[in-house]
Fold this protein.
Amino acid sequence: LRVGDLGIGASGAEFRAVGSLRVLRAHNQRIAQALLIEYRSKTYVDPSGARQTANKTDRELRRLLDGAGCSRIESVQPSPHAALAFKQVLRGQLDSVPSSALICVDISSLTRAHLVGLAQDLRSGELSRFKESILFTYSSPSTYDPKGTSAGGWERTLVCPAAAGGRLGNVGRSVGVILLGHEAERLAAALAEFEPSSGRLFVVSTPGVPEFGSMAEVHHRAFFSWWRNKDGASAPVILDVTQTRQFAAEVAAACENALRSDSPVVFYPFGPKPLCLAGIRQALEMTPKRTWFVYPVPNSYSTAHTAGLRSCSLYDSDLTYLGSEAIPLS
């Protein structure tokens, strides 16, 4: 494995942003240049604590990058909830990078809107030039707080096409793709804004951490009761964070159903980001003008939403799972 030329990742008030770099440095990997996406415009429940965590994260990232021989670090602050803003950053930073470059993209702390922008760019933007030379990394925390971002209510709910020129089409036969996360209140807010006519539900387990899956099911008890009685709702499919290709295949089946009725595929992307990225990328390949996503933006964030560092998973340029390992303590 040679990572080498350019690293892209988010820096902010979530310490797991350092996880993949710790793993790469444990294997003596070098990164020549780095692009840090900073989310300093977010509002936090505890502004002082958020600043302390963000500063700690930034110092550790820069320490690790210095140890990796990084000669240039570029920091940018795009709008955190605009997919286009993320694409514009990539356009500005990658247009001079040769297509032979090897790129590592850490998706651990990217916002969901920026994850959509990343999926767009992989299909038809600057990153599409590097299809065979991208490594994706994703660091899992030790714990989640299921009420970490929803305690302050919602600023707004994004209901957006996943690509420019998107149309809803036959909205009366919309196909939902619900990737269950840990926050029942966020899912409830999303469904209140846009309820699909039918849908596929995916419940995520974490290898070696069964309490993550059971915690999500407990907090979504009311949703499961509603889902079982909903017309057009499929039985839940159990996946884990390693099964990106299986999830993409499930999304492909949903897209085929949508194509037959000229209806939209609507994502509720609340589960692990590797699955979100793989699913939205698949949908953009099959139904680029019919792929939408729904995502409530909280009034304020909490630095307690995630805590600790557990493991880092690696995925190739097709988002096929390569393996994972524990994140070193330093």
In short: The mean pLDDT is 89.
